[in-house]
Amino acid sequence: MNYFTIGLAGHIDHGKTTLTGALTGIDTDRLKEEKERNISIEPGFAPFRLSEDMTVSIIDVPGHERFIRQMIAGVAGIDLVIPVVAADEGVMPQTREHLEILSLLGIQRSIIAITKADLVDEEMLQLVQEDILDYISGSGFEGSEIHFVDAKSGRGLEGLKKSIASFLSSLPSRNKAGAFRLPIDQVFTLQGHGTIVRGTIFDGEIRDGEKVTLLPDHFEARVRQIQTHNEKVDRAFAGQRVAINLAGTNKHELSRGQVMVNSNHYAVTSTIDLAFTQSLTMSHELKQRSLVTVHNGTAEVRGTIVFFDRNVLNSGEREELYCQIRLHDPLAAKKGDHVIVRRPTPVETIGGGSILNVAGEKYQFGHDTIAMFEQMQRGTPVERLDQLLDQELLLSKDQVMQNIGLDEEAYVQLSKESQLVLFDDYVTSVNVFNRVDQAIRIIVEDIHKQFPMRKGMPKAELIQEVRKTYPVKLIEETIDVNVEKGELKSTGPFLSTDSFEPYLPGSWKTRMTQVIEELRKQGLNVSPIDMLIEKESIPDSLKGEFKQYVVTENIAVSLTDELYVHENSFKKAITELKSRTGESFTLQEAKDILNVSRKYLVPILEKLDDSGYTIRKDRNRFWRT
């Protein structure tokens, strides 16, 4: 199953909400004020059924100029945009600003819908189409398909649906293997359920019951339930629109703009370095160290912009440059994120760009700093891939090709030039693989030192620990490779280093050996194990580990929590019973043969049943053949 999100953008009253309703059957204007004023104020969301293997969400973003900030939050994370232009009005100011913002966010996959097609004649439709083609000429939207539709009559809807389905089926799915990230765009409470957040998953996956962190505030919570368009699911993936019920936090701690994660892979920063593109809609010059507003995902943070090659950014041009923004509040972000930069007053979009560095420092004004930024941004394909994998850790082949801008032949060549590790359809670098491998080894070796009597570390616990930093699939694949190479040993659910064998800790080895020897001497009529351990003054902190050790290493058999018999004594009892009974035997016969009281006899016989030696039927026990 592939998951995608579509955004409908454009000028107010051009029919975005009506078109969404015609495609999905859902009215996305849910607020009382929206229905009273007949305009969208907040982004609206609806499920869009296209095919059995494709789950799609539609986001209807506000068109009014006063709600640009809501529009930016709404389009965060979309895979395809449908610019909506009304046939009776053509390209309008908010059409231009929306397309400008989308372009600055790097969102240029589009299918254009000319709505209200039944309200005008064919000549007018052609004029509107020419207006649109002229406007998008030379932009990233050039070449977009254009559909004439009318939501009320149904004209063109089927053609638009088929075009959307065809377009999405050609796209690689989002990075499901990456570290989970969900920018929050809605927070509310529901009677009987508590706090609920909504958003579109940018990366990775989330499972019911997982612990999560809300950045940048570092609030911790637990996922109590996940829904996607009112359907309960056990887990959700990148590209899906979700509502998540959280336990352990309350509505007052949460807000739009926070980012939900389940790892420490994402940075909380107060300074970002940008590769910046100026907006054509910017109408006033911008001075050095001006106050700006940064939009990243659903977050909106004020900051101070710093240039390194000028003191004024002039209006009316499309310049590309490098800059830094020193944020007034912390922001959760990562390298490569696209941001929009706006001026608080007069309110307008001044540009946007991608984050080069989430740990910006104070640099010198001048050429050297610009050269440093150029190296960060450009580099060779090999360098860019290394940087990308260092950031994303694990990517599919399609995602590598898409992010680096490669065709199949170039990808094959790049694979030869780069040091890559391939897992099925996923790729990581040797450097990242070695980092994961080292992290696993450090944790396992530490467990061996802390708990030498254990067979190792449970695989599930190891994955849970390492996933704080690395994707689960990458961890699992690294473990499998090391087990296959013999550098890690898998014993049941436990993992250990290749040469490790459980052992008694040196400072207690003599006393623990004495307990084992006492078990051997006592045969079946043993003293309680805790009594023998206490007699040797072995500390309580080691008692459980030692008891587990003698069982897992086949030194002793646990009859009850209290009674442990030596393995040799237990095997000897089985041999005696088998040699002196026929196909079956009674409890009394066993008592006479083994010469033990019921205190020991009953646990011994029950252990025979549990271990598969015998089957109890009424008062007899039958040997298994």
UniProtKB/TrEMBL annotation:
User: Keywords assigned by UniProt?
Assistant: Cytoplasm, GTP-binding, Nucleotide-binding, Protein biosynthesis
GO terms for molecular function, please? GTP binding; GTPase activity; RNA binding; translation elongation factor activity
Query: Where is each Tr-type G domain found?
Result: 1-172
UniProt-listed Pfam families: Beta-barrel_SelB, GTP_EFTU, GTP_EFTU_D2, WHD_2nd_SelB, WHD_3rd_SelB
Q: Which Gene3D superfamilies match?
A: 1.10.10.2770, P-loop containing nucleotide triphosphate hydrolases (3.40.50.300), Translation factors (2.40.30.10), Winged helix-like DNA-binding domain superfamily/Winged helix DNA-binding domain (1.10.10.10)
Locations listed in the record: Cytoplasm
Q: Which InterPro entries match?
A: Beta-barrel_SelB (IPR057335), EF-Tu_GTPase (IPR050055), EFTu-like_2 (IPR004161), Elong_fac_SelB-wing-hlx_typ-2 (IPR015190), P-loop_NTPase (IPR027417), SelB_WHD4 (IPR015191), Small_GTP-bd (IPR005225), T_Tr_GTP-bd_dom (IPR000795)
Q: Name one GO biological process term.
A: selenocysteine incorporation
What's the domain of life for this entry?
A: Bacteria
In the UniProt record, which is one GO cellular component term?
cytosol
Name the major location.
Answer: cytoplasm
Q: What does this protein do?
A: Translation factor necessary for the incorporation of selenocysteine into proteins. It probably replaces EF-Tu for the insertion of selenocysteine directed by the UGA codon. SelB binds GTP and GDP.
Q: What is this protein called?
A: Selenocysteine-specific elongation factor
For this protein's source organism, the top of the classification is:
Bacteria, Bacillati, Bacillota, Bacilli, Bacillales
